[in-house]
Amino acid sequence: MKPSKYILLSIVCFGNVIGLKAQWTACIDSSRINAMFQCNDPVYNPVCGCNQITYRNECTAFNVYGVRTYTSGVCSGLDMDVFPVPVGPFSDLHINLSYPDLVTGSMDFKVIDLYGKVIEQRLFSSVNRVNLQLSVATWPTGVFVLLLSNGRQSVVQKISKY
Predict the structure, then answer these.
(1) Which of 37, 84, 102, 131 could be joined to 63 by an S-S link, Cβ 3.0–4.6 Å?
(2) Both 70 and 84 in a single domain?
(3) How far apart are CA 56 and CA 96, in angstroms?
(4) Could you give phi then psi for residue 90, rounded to 5 degrees?
């Protein structure tokens, strides 16, 4: 390559990097990001951020993560939302399982302790969204794994009971 080709290649690559940065900053407002912001809204109303990440609700997307634009619903695939985390000895665990709007399918949901024992299991077929309320009063204190699967995709979340 001649030196002029190097310069042209550098300009093209640099221009692509600037374009990607401009797209990213247009989506996220870093001055709005506040990890300590308390939305205090226990309602699960998922939104898909412009960065293709599903957030619990508009308040969380905008105030905690600084997402400027979003649409209603799950971005893609399966989504699992758990509230509260950690869970107390006499609290109920609220779990929301979702597919994107207009998509239905089967879901296999399990709660597994650290020894591999299945504490809870539920199977759902031809659903779009499921809201579960589980009593944890009989569960021992410790860490648990929540596993949501549809055969093609799995979502895993850890929770603790104190």
Answers:
(1) 37
(2) no
(3) 10
(4) -120, 15
CA distance 103 to 46: 15
| Between 20 and 72, residue with greater pLDDT | 72
The 10s digit of each residue's pLDDT in 17-61 is 454 444 445 899 999 999 999 998 778 999 999 999 999 999 999
Dist CA 44 CA 64 (whole Å): 15
Instruction: Say how far apart CA 162 and CA 160 lie, in whole Å.
Output: 6
- Do 72 and 83 reside in the same domain of the chain? no
How are beta strands 105-113 and 92-98 bridged, if at all?
A: unpaired
Output the pLDDT for position 2: 55
Comparing CA positions, the residue from 65, 10, 29, 46 lying closest to residue 129 is: 46
Into how many domains does the chain fold?
A: 2
